[in-house]
Design brief:
The protein has about 100 residues and is mainly alpha-helical. The protein has helices spanning about 5-15, 20-30, 30-40, 50-65, 80-95.
Amino acid sequence: MPANSFSTLLDECRRKAALSTSDLAIWFETPRTSIHNWLGGIKPHVHRRAFLDARLKVLLKVIERAKSPFPVPPFTSQYARRNYIRDVRNAATGKKLP
């Protein structure tokens, strides 16, 4: 994936799924400031690039599904929203819950 397309695709995901910067930070398991920088066009570090590209592809697939779980249901509390995003991510990536 070309470097500039990461920021473009990330912003597209944010808009389509109505996700906040904090929501994306939960999805990518990274600080919110990193998400803010990536949305601003700064390239992710090379050592995390393969992981981030894979997570972005999964997010795109989840958003484009016919019965997408996004946007997050309205009136979801902050704590429940965090858990909801983690659960969707874990189900999509095949991660087992602890």
